[in-house]
Amino acid sequence: MTGETANLYTAFVARCANLDKTFIETQDGRRIRYREAFDLAGQIANVLKDKGVRPLDRVAVQVEKSAEALILYLACLRIGAIYLPLNTAYTLSELDYFINDAEPRVVVCAPGSHDGIQSLMTRLSGASVLTLGTQGDGSLMLLAQTAPTHIDAAPCRPDDIAAILYTSGTTGRSKGAMLTHRNLRSNAETLAATWCFTAGDVLLHALPLFHTHGLFVATNIILTTGASMILMPEFDPSVIRERLPEATVMMGVPTFYTRLLQEDWLDAKTVAHMRLFVSGSAPLLADTHREWSERTGHAILERYGMTETNMITSNPYSGSRIPGTVGTALPGIEVIVTDPQTGAVLPNGEVGVVEVRGPNVFKGYWRMPEKTEAELRSNGFFITGDLGRLDDNGVLSIVGRGKDLVITGGYNVYPKEVETQIDEIDGVVESAVIGVQHPDFGEGVTAIVVKAAASNLSESAIVKALDNRLAKFKLPKRIIFVDELPRNTMGKVLKDALRVQYKSIYTSG
Ligand code: AMP
Description:
binds adenosine monophosphate; alpha/beta; nine-stranded mixed β-sheet; four-stranded parallel β-sheet
């Protein structure tokens, strides 16, 4: 690929067979056709260019979800700028780090955040702040209204950076993953083909736009196939029900599925017309998978990926989707499991670090060459930090993050193994197992458990139930009952927060 053809925006336009087709339908029923979206992308691109944005300049964006926010992403791609979405939950003091690290030429924020963000940008000469509200309001749209729709797409090389997404790391400084036009394009095309997307598909889009799942997996697949999406500001089961009849596919985090299972209306009839339900970004409980199949007749397709690599593995579109596994490597992508100490490739069946190589793997961390070198091997394999196991058919199971491994009395305990056993006990809804500092064992296996409302399960009953199923050293030393597990917006359990909350249960007498 050379010249213009490597620009992801150009690829999207080339793949759109019908410009009159709906690209986005908003929750309030507004339809935006592809032609309108590309025209507005041109107008926004002209505004950004007038503000001095050149190819590879960063455009940082912290706005609520809207059709215009999505089109702003297209505008950035079109002029070869680097799109840098920021979680809407970040506070001003957190934004200070991101803005000064990324040095954007333009920041687009919600109208109410303008002054606060402006005050963070004193060190960035020539940078501007524009605003974008959820109703097409704000200074960006005001300027765009009178801007020309035409602008040439910037010629890009495949390895040019298209976007930087900061990882949601809760320890240390957040790292900016640099994703190239090739990374995003190859993954979108691979996923669209693997999951059999066509222009006739209509996606229920209830995911945030600042994360790889909602921004790249969901959006880029739609743009790659000229399909349509129903864009919802957030996940709301009653809105899902209302829009379900028009849709063919839903992508969600596991909590979408557990929440929908609480709805009385969910049955095989309401989803009979659906083609596909996809889950990812956090582990889908095998129980949720089974319950969903029983209720709806659909097997959820679980896939696995991360910010730095886009999507890595997927359960099959045709063929059996195995609960508790994340499927096989996507075409063109290699997955290996290695020994955490030596880096040697492990035989199938053994747990080790998941490593991945392919056109999906990012270029490195923004301005962090040492971190890039530590995690991206010179042979192209990226060390994901996830622990997993491959079976003889190449099916991967994720057993947790490496940093979540519990080392107790010198033995390794994989939290997922203990969680799976606890979750099978009658009366348990779900659990999170963490390592907590322990005076005798180094770390004590500790289970945080949510039990069903009507259950009177006790700590000793759980330990007793586990007794024959797990080796002694894996048994929780303490079980703590809670009403719910803390989660981030992508449905990931916040184990760091749990470790902090319970850090002194074995040491404070
Ligand atoms: P993020 O970069 O925020 O997308 O987070 C990526 C991390 O989410 C991965 O490294 C995994 O730890 C986790 N993850 C994503 N998908 C799955 C899945 N299907 N099963 C288990 N963990 C997952």
